[in-house]
Design brief:
heterodimer; A: alpha/beta; 3-stranded antiparallel sheet; B: mainly alpha; 13 helices
Chain lengths: ~250, ~290
Amino acid sequence: MQPLAIEVKDVWFSYDRQLVLREVNLHIRQGEFLAILGPNGGGKTTLLKLMLGILKPTGGIVRILGQDPSHMTGRIGYVPQDTSVNKDFPISVMDVTLMGRLGHMGLSRRYSDEDRAQARQALERVDMWEYRGRPIGKLSGGQRQRVFIARALAANPLIIFMDEPTASVDKEFQTDLYEFLKELNVSSTVVVVSHDLSVLSSYVKSIACLNQTLYYHNSAEITPEMVDMAYHCPVELIAHGLPHRVLRKHEDH
Amino acid sequence: MACLIGSCASTRTIEMLEALQFEFMQNALLAGVLTSVACGIIGTLVVVNRIVFISGGVAHAAYGGVGLAFFLGISPLMGATGFSLLISAIMAIVTLKNKQRADTVVGVLWAVGMAMGIILIDLSPGYNVDLMSYLFGSILAVPRSDLVMMFAVDLIVLLVVTRYYNSFLAMSFDEEFAQAAGVPVRALYFTLLAMTAFVVVMVIRVVGLILVIALLSIPPYIAERYSESLRSMMVFSVILSLLFTLLGLWFSYLFNLTSGATIIMVAAAFFFISLVVDRVRARLSRSSPSPV
């Protein structure tokens, strides 16, 4: 049997004495396209960092493809929030992309021709190869996002994690982005984290809502109950301008 | 005393060239070169990792090590190095554990280190320490033994940074991505702070502990805008640091000024010139339609 892509079992997490995650359970098969939604401060980024092995849970177990996240560094692709990046940093698009190969090599090794070839392939896939010599700070938000996707792809990841992918890109690129993620989803598991409910689209296969605890539905549908529980207030959700409604109609009005 | 400044300066320049025959002057120049190498490389990492304040804290706390050395009767250089390493390790632990409160703790260690140094020197009998030489440097009084140590620090810094360059680059650019990719960020961070401690003690010799931050941060700050990679930023910083140190040394000899302070004033002058140049460049590129 194939191991689960992501297994989060009874996970608790607290910073100092402040509880961030309570009894979180999540089982994601390979090939899933999951969106984790929730309000800011609800613990989304913490859960993401636990799955990436950046943080260790206070209690409970996190397994990626059946193993401890810190052993899976070569098989995980991570696309951080654009805002977390220092735009004055003197680094070229190519050098950023090459970082994706770090998980495949030792601490001190140089990049090999193979690493360069993989980075090139990844940049070509996101149409950014011609910008390879550009400083990262001289790109637009959307272009930078593509480079970070290329960096994640350079690792040939089995799972791709994205933190707030639509935060700093325009509406037009958002559609392209989801189209692209759908394409990636053919060969890898995709996990998107966002506070923005509009990421819900026809591309996502399943949705979880997180606000300290996790509400998970194995379908691309948010129930009003999930939203109530996650946001602690009834939200009228209407999917404006999206190709498919993601919500059931409220019948009892 | 009715000589023109120009002709005085030129006579002094000739005197300075003569002064190069003296060992103290040769040592000063060599110290300037050796310090610039380590300072440019580590200064670059300090600036891009935003630990300028921490390195300032280590520099000032180092005075505690000087005091301790006099109190115990060991070499001040040893005392300062050992103590700086200890303080930098504590600061590394604190900043890794609690980023929000780290600056407060660094500030406290900064002051406590200095206070401890002053009191320990008060308590050391028979010593009349030249406090000024630690506060503002004494590049004109660098003994051969210090040069050997500086050379060793350069060698360590060069070896470590070239060997782990890609890992340092990843940590500096995007710490979380680096961590997720399996780069041992914690170990690298401790290594960086330890190297910073070594370099800080070395730079104290040249410009003194009060001015260490300036020589560590001004060259990389200027270099960053003109560099396309971390590597070129390091090289450019080394060159700038060398330029500031040698020019400062020359001016201090020419006008009979304190060398450490003169070096920093030269660096500061370049710093402000670069700000003005940037402003002008930005305005020019805004007024002319950009081709992209």
